[in-house]
Amino acid sequence: MTRGKRSADAIVIGGGLHGCATALHLKRSGLDTIVVEKDYVGRHASSANAGGVRRLGRALPEIPLAVAALASWHRIGELVDDDCGFAVSCQMKVAETESELEALRDRRETLLSLGFEHEEIIDQEQLRGLLPAIAPHCVGGMVVHGDGHANPFLTVQAFKRKALALGVRILESAPVESVQKQDEIWQVQSAQGHLQAPILVNCAGAWGGRIAAMLGEHAPVESEALMLMITERLKPFVTPVVGAQGRMLSFKQFDNGTVLIGGGHQGRAEPDSNRTHLDFRELATSATTAAILFPRLRGVQLVRCWGGIEGQLPDGIPVIGASAVEGAYHAFGFCGHGFALGPIVGRIIADLIVAGESDLPIGAFDIGRFSSPTAA
Ligand SMILES: Cc1cc2nc3c(=O)[nH]c(=O)nc-3n(C[C@H](O)[C@H](O)[C@H](O)COP(=O)(O)OP(=O)(O)OC[C@H]3O[C@@H](n4cnc5c(N)ncnc54)[C@H](O)[C@@H]3O)c2cc1C
Q1: What does the pLDDT look like over 295-348, one tens digit per residue?
Q2: Judging by beta carbons within 10 Å of its beta carbon (0-12, 13-18, 19+), is residue 360 exposed, middle or buried?
Q3: What domains can be seen in the chain, in order of their start residue?
């Protein structure tokens, strides 16, 4: 794409999964759309994540979105002409003590009272049936059948390819420097030239608070460097994706035998320089946690570890919805669990823009929650 002035119906800031998915849905709805990305598509969290697609353990307002997203994942090929490496596999949370199991039972009751039945409690015998390699002290857990995982890199590239094929224009190495509204039209200055459109969507991930500030809105996004590590190839010993009720853990074994270990341990993020600094003490805690729950991991070699920059909001849920400024929309700050929601959030934003409403409940994600007198 050449430098200069470009016009469109919509400008999406951020070429992560949410930006590409939003652009794809907007273009399908007939809007000429430009994605403007400061680095390159999929440079950040959208490619660096663990690929977990779960309804298990979601914050309550996110459950309807996670349920709808899962349905999209099961038909992901229809959306982007690629299976994105999506595989169905149950997601589990292990309880190491009776009180942890009790907390999981309480959680199930809460979900049942809201009409959601997907989280099931399992006893020790059922746990061993699903996870023969689990440490003997574990007493039970929670399981969700039908969740799964996908390949993050393949996914974001598939969304990019499909968006391009539909006619979305993608501008890379183009940090947005300023955003102003003049006569109902957004004027966006990027390092690759000037863009204008009546619709603006902020999908800037951990940088979403900065774009919101350009619109005069407040969202206290903290940048986090979530870390993951991967082991050497091991004989197959676990098929579900495993977490723990009392510890930070996310654990899955791939078909090639390697095991991905994460769960929220953090390094240090430098969003201004795009850098993440790994914290090896935290990684050691993460590895120890995995070995406590799966004793056969003791002595196993870790072959790689990395971090990705993610945006965290104080209440642990993202900002999704219309801005208070007409013609602008937000979808950012996914707090470590936005990959799974990728296919649905783009549709929500496109519905808001095109139809003026979404069929999913998104009130809890409104950016206004940070500027209300209560928030202050
Ligand atoms: C290590 C790790 C593990 C994770 N595991 C999971 C998991 O298992 N399951 C799950 O559901 N989620 C997981 N997540 C979270 C998930 O990756 C994110 O929530 C999701 O990818 C967010 O997508 P995004 O498009 O909002 O953000 P990003 O992928 O960060 O994209 C935002 C884009 O905006 C661009 N941008 C920012 N500012 C500007 C600007 N001024 N001008 C132009 N472009 C700009 C950035 O360069 C970036 O490319 C994990 C995250 C990490 C880091």
Answers
A1: 999 999 999 999 999 999 999 999 999 999 999 999 999 999 999 999 999 999
A2: middle
A3: 4-51+153-221+315-370 (3.50.50.60), 90-145+222-312 (3.30.9.10)
Pocket lining: 205 vs ligand 1, CB cutoff 6 Å: yes
**CA angle at 58 for the pair 55 and 138, rounded to the nearest 5°:** 85
Chain-centroid distance of CA 233 in Å reads: 27
As a whole number, mean pLDDT of residues 232-242 equals 96
In the block, which residue shows the tokens 């102003």?
Answer: 180
Q: Report the alpha-carbon distance of residue 158 to residue 202 in Å, rounded.
A: 21
d(CA 234, CA 258): 6
Overall pTM surpassing 0.85 (yes/no): yes
Q: How far apart are CA 128 and CA 139, in angstroms?
A: 9
Ligand 1 centre from 309 Cα, in Å? Answer: 7
Is the CB of 23 within 6 Å of ligand 1?
no
